[in-house]
């Protein structure tokens, strides 16, 4: 097959938000061949619910799907029985076969919230791992050395801390590597913490006479707290199956720094587009992100309704929480711009007049657009003043 020219933005999109690409040139060469690639990502069904942390990988899979490649959603029902030791300080309790199967069924339902069901292969690694006999396991194990497996950072730390490593944990990277051989994967996707396991897939493919896969890793998504990786156990997650109001509200609660990371990892926008968004108001960008996330799981109409409900609740909450400040006029009428400066709602008279002329100032819900507008103040008068989207005060005339 003759190689074809590869549009620059295709490679840019596929590499967007990735940490590792081993290697870029190999990926470019595989894409340029013009034949559909087999793109694999594995998910161990260790918990029943998927969340946006899983969505980072799934979105990367959809990008390959849209380019016409074959995506394999691999459910690690066999590896789930071992328990992934990645990031674990102690041996992880193994799940029962019943627990794994229940969780796997929920995955099958949830994954098509993101992936195109017509272009997705769902496979279970028990298909081939369960068929291996004793001599097959010995042959597989002979492809790796103990020194190789103990290179894992997790194991190094546990040995340094004199924490035990169970022998079955050493089997995990072997099984994951064999998955790539069984599926003849051209590309494997995973979290950056999975790099060791993914690279072993390349080693085993090479030893088995197959072309080594491209390894692409993505960063772990920070949760709504902006500190720890997204995890249901930490409560900092947004689940695929949560209702639209919950998804919208949780997204609006994240910090601006976290928001820009989410734009990069959870949408198809390229870095240049995201940079251009930073010139606008962060609140607008966050609402757009929340709407995009909700649309993916509940549709655009429900996302718009969720936004309207959130704005209503937010405005009501702002109004009830608006701090009361005293206004002591020295004359019957006073210029609004001057008052905004005196009450700390604008840095200067010029800024206050600009805000008023832009329609960013309202009094008791009514916008004021005349920068020379003057207020007639009376004793005991109360006035709700809003500047922009976030600044609120309730003026009380003394």
Task: List its salient traits.
single chain, 398 residues, alpha/beta, Rossmann fold, Tyrosyl-Transfer RNA Synthetase, Structural Genomics Hypothetical 15.5 Kd Protein In mrcA-pckA Intergenic Region, Chain A, 5-stranded mixed β-sheet, 18 helices, 47% helix, disordered N terminus
Describe the 3D structure.
The chain has 398 residues and is an alpha/beta fold. The protein folds into 3 domains: 8-218, Rossmann fold; 244-321, Tyrosyl-Transfer RNA Synthetase, CATH 1.10.240.10; 324-397, RNA-binding S4 domain (Structural Genomics Hypothetical 15.5 Kd Protein In mrcA-pckA Intergenic Region, Chain A), CATH 3.10.290.10. Helix content is 47%, strand content 15%. It has 18 helices and 13 strands. The strands form 3 sheets. The chain has a 6-stranded mixed sheet with strand order 1-6-5-2-3-4, sandwiched between helices. A 5-stranded mixed sheet has the order 7-13-12-9-10. Helix 12 packs antiparallel against helix 15 (282-298). The longest helix is centred in the last third of the chain and has 22 residues, at 300-321. The chain starts with 7 loop residues before the first helix and ends with a strand.
How can the largest sheet be summarized? 6 strands, mixed
How many strands in all?
Answer: 13
Round the Cα radius of gyration to an integer and report it: 28 Å
Quote the beta fraction. 5-15%
CATH class of the largest domain: Alpha Beta
So what's the overall shape?
A: elongated
**What's the helical proportion of residues?**
40-55%
Give the N-to-C terminal Cα separation.
84 Å
**CATH topology label of the largest domain:** Rossmann fold
* Distinct helical segment count: 18
Supply the number of structural domains: 3
Mean pLDDT: 87
Structural category: alpha/beta
Query: By CATH's scheme, which homologous superfamily of the largest domain applies?
Result: HUPs
Low-confidence stretches: 1-5
Question: Can you name the CATH architecture of the largest domain?
Answer: 3-Layer(aba) Sandwich
The main sheet orders its strands as: 1-6-5-2-3-4
